[in-house]
Specification:
The protein has 278 residues and is an alpha+beta fold. It is 56% helix and 21% strand. The longest helix has 43 residues. Pfam families: Band_7.
């Protein structure tokens, strides 16, 4: 009973050491030997112990295969042991890449080619190194599949008119998927939507027919308004016979202003009949 209890305690201690990132006895011995080696060869080993990272970079340090701290080092100078420590540089600057054109079948069964651009950056250097093999390449592949999945739920009209909403939906999905990788997706934009040539011709013909129909309706409305105006004018002229003569003189003045060589001047029938009696 005592042996079993002791064995259980040893197992629990080993698990606790593994969770807390303890190096163990052999690991500490190697670290001590490495430190002694650095001290003995101090003038030479100093060039291997001090490292520098830029303002936009961070260093994730591994000591005997374990991450030494929950926070990345940098920017500036930091210290490592040359024999037991290694480090990986992580760039924190925003990275942009083009999504290759994707052949997508929309919700209303129309095949279109869509491409876009994604902007992202590393928000957690340790997660981007420890949780994924290649965070940049993985984000690029995920962006392509996310573009297909999001646009597959949209019809053609929504795809052409609601690009901002589609980009926001893609950004949300990508940001949630890459959160465990230490990646922050800042922006997604849809660059171009290419339609098949037959569909382009059909849409152009539909738009042209719609414009012609609107033009005919507008012309008909203009004719109707003009006829109403002429009717009202004829009623006004009918109330005063002299108004017709004034309108006739105004028409002659307009014709004379155009420099025509011949002007036809019709006479009223009552005047002609007066001369015919004589």
């Amino acid at each position: 009973m005592h042996k079993r209890s002791r064995y259980t305690c040893l197992v629990c201690s080993a698990c606790e050491a593994e969770r807390t990132g303890s190096l163990g006895c052999i690991g500490w011995i190697l670290v001590i030997l490495s430190s002694i080696f650095v001290i003995v060869l101090f003038p030479i080993t100093i060039w291997f112990c001090f490292k520098i990272v830029q303002e936009y970079e961070r260093a994730v340090i591994f000591r005997l295969g374990r991450i030494t701290d929950r926070k990345a080092k940098g920017p500036g100078i930091f210290f490592i042991l040359p024999c037991t420590d290694s480090f990986v540089k992580v760039d924190l600057r925003t990275v942009s890449f083009d999504i290759p054109p994707q052949e997508i079948l929309t919700k209303d069964s129309v095949t279109v080619s869509v491409d876009g651009v994604v902007y992202f950056r590393v928000s957690d250097p340790i997660a981007s190194v420890a949780n994924v093999t290649n965070a940049d390449f993985s984000t690029r592949l995920l962006a392509q599949t996310t573009l297909r999945n999001v646009l597959g739920t949209k019809n053609l009209a929504e795809l052409l008119s609601d690009r901002e909403g589609i980009a926001h939906s893609m950004q949300t999905n990508l940001d949630e998927a890459t959160d465990n990788w230490g990646i922050k997706v800042e922006r997604v934009e849809i660059k171009d939507v290419k339609l098949p040539h037959q569909l382009q011709r059909a849409m152009a013909a539909e738009a042209e027919a719609s414009r012609e129909a609107r033009a005919k309706v507008i012309a008909a409305e203009g004719e109707m308004n003009a006829s109403r105006a002429l009717k009202e004018a004829s009623l006004v002229i009918a109330e005063s016979p002299s108004a017709l003569q004034l309108r006739y003189l105004q028409t002659l003045n307009t014709i004379a202003a155009e420099k025509n060589s011949t002007i036809i001047f019709p006479l009223p029938m009552d005047v002609i009949s007066h001369f015919m009696r004589k």
